[in-house]
Design a protein that fits this description.
This protein is 43% helix and 16% strand. By secondary structure, the protein is of the alpha/beta class.
Length: 314
């Protein structure tokens, strides 16, 4: 797929119907159209139950005697990595917001902090509390540092974001890099949509979906999206990727839909998931039906198997 970078246009692919169709459109208007177009399709409760049962059975075969003392978290990054059979996913970055404890070896960086700060900044803009992404980012950072000063187990106060303490120890130059990354990320999301067209407030980066298989509480599947909006009777999700989509983009988009459906029921399965890759100007839309969820479930099981191969149980 070839994307045009001029005149704010991008390539759009809709996988519904008979084969994909491609057309060019101005980004904000058509991306908003793709997100808000009502979806009449629905996932039947029994269909979802069958997918869940099959996935649980497959997981039992893969997990075997996986110790209850160990923890395994699976994200879209893991799913795409397993499908590509290599150590890194090209179209979705490893996003560790809040996962900064334990033995994961996580080290904060401007790149990894940009989503957390950017999401909070876009939320401020959408609620009319900031005039631009740049001013919103500054306010988010200032608020985080204020919360950090008063955070204490004995004080009832807002909890500082996971990146605040790390940011506080940075030099002025390093802080400027963090702010620049966050402003870029927030601007890409804020300018991608026509926000005045949302009849119901969109959910911006709040509340990741989590699902744990029955009897396997040490294994968690995490569905993270940047935005949830109502498209008729069902929601639509927006996911932001890095660089450009790989051949496995459909599964990467379907995975958070699968986790949402398992965690909250068939009525919470989105009608579609829209993927936006700002760096390459590509937008792709994946309608969510039973086939899409089955594909995502199979890929999730493969991701667990791949993780266990890399991280032998003790």
């Amino acid at each position: 797929m070839t994307a045009l970078s001029s005149a704010q246009t991008t390539t759009f692919t809709d996988t519904g119907g008979v084969g994909p169709r491609t057309r060019l459109f101005p980004r904000a208007a058509s991306l908003t159209d793709a997100l808000l177009e009502p979806s009449s399709s629905a996932i039947a409760a029994q269909e979802l139950a069958d997918i869940r049962a099959r996935m649980v059975a497959s997981l039992e075969e893969v997990l075997g005697a996986f110790p209850t003392s160990q923890r395994l978290q699976v994200t879209a990054y893991d799913v795409v990595s397993a499908l590509e059979q290599r150590g890194e996913a090209r179209d979705f970055t490893q996003d560790a917001d809040g996962d900064v404890t334990g033995d994961s070896g996580f080290v904060p960086s401007p790149f990894l902090c940009r989503r957390s700060i950017g999401i909070a900044a876009v939320r401020r803009c959408a609620r009319g509390r900031a005039s631009s992404p740049s001013s919103a980012v500054r306010e988010v950072i200032e608020s985080a540092l204020d919360d950090l000063k008063i955070s204490s187990p004995s004080v009832s106060a807002p909890r500082a974001p996971w990146w605040a303490q790390w940011y506080e120890g940075l030099t002025p130059g390093a802080r400027a890099v963090v702010e620049a990354e966050a402003v870029t990320w927030a601007t890409q999301l804020w300018t991608a949509l026509e926000w005045n067209r949302f009849s119901r407030p969109a959910v911006i980066g709040e509340g990741d979906d989590w699902w744990r298989p029955p009897g396997r509480s040490q294994v968690a599947f995490k569905g993270r999206v940047e935005l949830k909006a109502w498209a008729g009777p069902r929601q639509a999700f927006l996911v932001i990727g890095s660089r450009s989509p790989s051949t496995n983009w459909r599964t990467a988009l379907a995975f958070p839909a699968l986790v949402a459906a398992f965690a909250r029921g068939e009525r919470c399965a989105p009608g579609r998931v829209v993927g936006l890759w700002p760096q390459s100007g590509i937008v792709r839309v994946h309608p969510i039906d039973t086939a899409a969820l089955c594909e995502a479930a199979d890929a999730a099981v493969a991701a667990v198997h791949a993780r266990l191969q890399k991280e032998p149980t003790s």
